[in-house]
């Protein structure tokens, strides 16, 4: 293991040419309450997200835990339907938790499409990335994220309205996606041009337990072409593309690797495709990130999490191209002791190989 953060070793793993005796750690994100509990320090927020001081706590804690890169998000400016709000009952509660229901919509026909307040690239704030670049310890890099076209389409139109629109007015779906793509291409180009950005996420949940939210043909028609052009923008700037997507993507994985051109795939669930199986299926064509399923990470004892994590490392590390982490993200309902047990297993696995 390298003493201190080294994004170079993370990058070589994404490119699948790393020494398999070293496995980096990586996450889509670790929620603020988890980091705050570990750091025993406050993380301050303002209208732009974490303040400069909050970013410093967040990044330095990640450095101390062993990370080489940390995700920082940018909002591309799309107006969304009103969120449903509920109480956050996690032990490290954020107070409230929001979500968009399937019936919520901002665009349901051509009239509402014309009335929608489409953002311009000039309206996007990159303050979070600028603050992160200043707060980030030496050797680390930013993994920049602005969401993904499938999510923005489903959130703006709403899943129910989109389902009808695909049958009743597919041309309108294409026009909406074209406007989403126009904005996202500008945002991706700006993010990928920033010096401390080491890679770019397409963070785009596209599926559920047994398949994709839209049919594979609809994905190939409306979503994957935009993802391909976003990936090209990042690659042209010399930045690898990491895909985060929940759900069963088996029907389109070849498209994602061969057509879209993703360099790494993140988010794995044991009930769909365990990361150990994914390594056998796709590990020779794309780096895999994560795989410590959030359900056992939350429900098992720390010792059980430790053993479970060691098993994943033993099966996924050979031949390189694997980055350890949770199956999705370290949410505020994950017990801190369990999260630390996963990281302890990571350290113990490397210590055993040095002895």
Plain-language structure description:
The structure is a single chain. The protein has 355 residues and is of the alpha/beta class. It has 14 helices and eleven strands. The protein has helices at 7-14, 32-39, 52-65, 110-115, 127-135, 149-157, 159-168, 170-192, 216-236, 253-260, 275-282, 294-299, 302-316, 336-354; strands spanning 45-46, 49-50, 69-73, 84-87, 96-99, 141-145, 197-203, 241-244, 264-266, 287-289, 322-323. α2 crosses α3, α7 (159-168) packs across α8 (170-192) and α13 (302-316) packs across α14. The protein is globular and about 65 Å long.
Strand arrangement across the biggest beta sheet = 3-6-7-8-9-10-11
Quaternary: single chain
Q: Strand count, sense and closure of the main sheet?
A: 7 strands, parallel
| Total beta strands | 11
What share of the residues does DSSP label as strand, in percent?
A: 5-15%
- The CATH topology: TIM Barrel
How would you describe the shape? globular
Contiguous helical run count: 14
Structural class: alpha/beta
Question: If you compute it from the alpha carbons, what radius of gyration comes out, rounded to the nearest whole angstrom?
Answer: 20 Å
What CATH first level would be assigned?
A: Alpha Beta
Query: Which architecture does the CATH hierarchy give at level 2?
Result: Alpha-Beta Barrel
Q: Provide the low-confidence segments as ranges.
A: none
Binned, the helix content reads 40-55%
Q: Span between N and C termini?
A: 12 Å
* Number of structural domains: 1
N-to-C series of helices and strands: HHEEHEEEHHEHHHEHEHEHEHHEH
Average pLDDT rating: 96
């Amino acid at each position: 293991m390298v003493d201190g953060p080294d994004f170079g070793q993370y990058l070589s793993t994404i490119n699948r040419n790393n020494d398999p005796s070293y496995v980096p750690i990586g996450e889509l994100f670790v929620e603020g309450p988890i980091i705050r509990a570990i750091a025993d320090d406050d993380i301050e927020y303002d209208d732009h997200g974490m303040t400069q001081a909050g970013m410093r706590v967040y990044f330095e804690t990640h450095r101390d835990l062993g990370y080489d890169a940390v995700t920082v998000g940018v909002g591309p400016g799309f107006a969304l339907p009103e969120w449903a709000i509920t109480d956050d009952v996690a032990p490290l509660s954020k107070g409230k938790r929001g979500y968009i229901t399937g019936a919520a919509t901002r665009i349901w026909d051509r009239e509402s499409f014309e009335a929608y307040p489409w953002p311009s690239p000039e309206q996007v704030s990159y303050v979070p990335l600028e603050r992160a670049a200043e707060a980030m310890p030496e050797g680390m890099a930013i993994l920049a994220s602005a969401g993904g076209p499938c999510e923005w389409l489903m959130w703006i139109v709403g899943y129910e309205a989109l389902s009808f629109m695909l049958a009743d007015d597919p041309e309108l779906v294409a026009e909406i996606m074209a406007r989403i793509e126009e904005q996202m291409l500008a945002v991706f180009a700006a993010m990928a041009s920033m010096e401390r950005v080491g890679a770019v996420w397409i963070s785009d949940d596209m599926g559920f337990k047994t398949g994709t939210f839209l049919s594979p043909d609809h994905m190939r028609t409306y979503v994957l072409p935009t993802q391909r052009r976003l990936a090209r923008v990042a690659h042209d700037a010399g930045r690898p593309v990491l895909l985060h997507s929940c759900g069963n993507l088996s029907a389109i994985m070849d498209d994602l690797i061969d057509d879209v051109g993703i360099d790494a795939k993140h988010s794995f669930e044991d009930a769909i495709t365990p990361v150990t199986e994914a390594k056998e299926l796709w590990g020779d064509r794309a780096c895999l990130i994560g795989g410590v399923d959030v359900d056992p990470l939350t429900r098992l004892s720390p010792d059980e999490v430790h053993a479970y994590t060691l098993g994943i490392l033993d099966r996924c590390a050979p031949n390189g191209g694997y980055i350890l982490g949770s199956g999705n993200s370290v949410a505020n309902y994950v017990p801190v002791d369990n999260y630390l047990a996963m990281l302890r297993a990571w350290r113990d696995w490397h210590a055993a190989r040095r002895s």
